[in-house]
């Protein structure tokens, strides 16, 4: 099949800024040349890159030859000049043989300068206008004609010289560019003109470019407390390395009473010896200028010159970075500022530049002021001491504020009373008051004390409240004094202590279980309830261990390892010879006493539950039994305790939680299960009523039954002495 011209590939292109169809000289289909197609030369005609086969646009990419040239233009219309010299730069691009001519811009030239001939291939002057300029047409000290203008090439750069020598062009010696007569005349005129601002260069650009945005930061303090109404003021100093200026900001504490200002010192250079005084205008300047006087001749010329000797100049010394370090005191316009610390960038800067390693900071905080002890007038006897003291504190008297946090923590809630109760006896010489018993209650929430006397029939005393709840002062204090009075604390109350309550002397004989347990739990405040201290006193009698063991064996012939309370008391008291107090002995007995079954009577508990159920008319026991039978899938008539408790809660059984837990524990077996028929039948107050409870009065007989006629209480009837000997003296069983 013959191949015609329509097999050539075509594309759209631009020619003379007009879009047209351009045909490329490419092979036809199959890679074979088309008929009449001429091969296109791949490389330039002149040698490129020492015979390299690489295309010229690749070998000479971004390589340009630069020639210095000038043009002499005639000026026939001006009398000041006959010709003008204009300078040009001729750029020859090796990659495509294009030429560009630029004219450097001159100040106040008045002519359009810049690109004189845009980049393109330039044809040779006639009669060779069908050819273009190549690299071989250029040399030094020759003339080239571009579009009728003759350019005289007088020099070139080093790269151009080397390239021309490399391709075999013999370079002419460089020429000289003539001086423009008009520019010469103008320069002489400018030199004779009076300078308005004499110029002297200061090289600050290098410092600015190197240290721009780099700031040293110091934390400092200005102590102005020596002056009237002065104080210590914390400051932050910024030293700008780019121009050696200093800026100071003040750290304004809250409620300082001073107006907040943006800057303490505006950014500027800080003189070392300031304030220097008042200078005349123009006395402080960077340059010194001299007046030039030419005399009284006809051609009088007034001019100015820079004084290179700078006679009469006022020198000021400013702070530099080398003058700033931790511990230095700088002068900020008469104010002594101490540098106390700096940030990490500042430490790194000084370590790198000056080799400083010690950066121990100085405290910026002011020392605490001396506390002046306030003196109050003595108490005058009107009202309480606290209320009278409030009238001396402020102009508007306010009531005394008690410790609310302590009140909330130690107030009674639930079954925790936070009340220490002691049974006491009145110490007196009156025979009628010897047998009077009292209950002293100490309230931990506000440190108040109340005294109650149990009612006793046919005693001749009314009984009841003996002292209402109030704080009790310690005896022996002056009444009218400035210092606040001291009151009885909880740490001063213990079994065996004697307490003076408003002139009445009480002997503490016993305490309830809650009081003893609270004191043992807080043994750091009540050392007599600390079992560790009691055992330490017993260990001091280590030498009598064999004797003590023999005494306990004689008191226990059946070797039950326990003895009664009185025997144990006699042995321990004789062993310690008065080292143990009554309270410490009670603590020891509570630790090693044999516990007895002191649980409440189940009939009494059920009677209390019946009373609560009767008041709320609760009778849904049949429904509870039916629910238990439904859940008892194995028909064992027992259910877990947690299921019975959940059933009572869901049915809203009107019994208090504490009472319900005690009754459930009474019906619980070893596997934590309860016979639900027995439990709910016992609670059924209709089917199984219980006799009503009788109130128990606190009488002397009941008190004597509890005390058993002893001066000290009996927390346990029998004591495990063997465990005591084992823990204290290390005696093992034989």
The major β-sheet equals:
6 strands, antiparallel
- CATH topology grouping of the largest domain: PH-domain like
The CATH class assignment of the largest domain is Mainly Beta
Please give the alpha-carbon distance between the first and last residues.
Answer: 131 Å
Number of helices: 19
Strand content: 15-25%
Report the C-alpha radius of gyration, rounded. Answer: 58 Å
Query: What is the CATH architecture term of the largest domain?
Result: Roll
Oligomerization state of this entry? single chain
Widest β-sheet, arrangement of strands: 6-5-4-3-8-7
| Poorly predicted sequence stretches spanning 5 or more consecutive residues | 1-24, 40-52, 695-712
**Number of beta-strand segments:** 26
The mean pLDDT is: 82
Subcellular location: Cytoplasm, Cytoskeleton, Flagellum axoneme
Domain DM10: 61-168, 212-354, 416-523
Protein name: EF-hand domain-containing family member C2
Keywords: Cell projection, Cilium, Cytoplasm, Cytoskeleton, Flagellum, Repeat
Distinctive features:
734 residues; PH-domain like; 5 domains; six-stranded antiparallel beta sheet; 26 strands; elongated; disordered N terminus
What layout of secondary structure does this protein have?
Elements: E1 10-15, E2 18-23, H1 56-59, E3 64-74, E4 83-93, E5 98-103, E6 114-120, E7 142-146, E8 149-156, H2 158-166, H3 181-192, H4 205-211, E9 215-223, E10 232-240, E11 245-250, E12 265-268, E13 289-293, E14 302-306, E15 329-332, E16 335-342, H5 344-353, H6 385-393, H7 404-410, E17 419-426, E18 437-443, E19 448-453, E20 464-470, E21 498-501, E22 504-511, H8 513-521, H9 531-539, H10 545-555, E23 562-564, H11 565-576, H12 582-592, H13 602-615, H14 621-631, E24 638-640, H15 641-650, H16 657-667, E25 673-675, H17 676-683, H18 700-707, E26 718-720, H19 721-728
Antiparallel strand pairs: 1-2, 3-4, 3-8, 4-5, 5-6, 7-8, 9-10, 9-16, 10-11, 11-12, 13-14, 15-16, 17-18, 17-22, 18-19, 19-20, 21-22, 23-26, 24-25
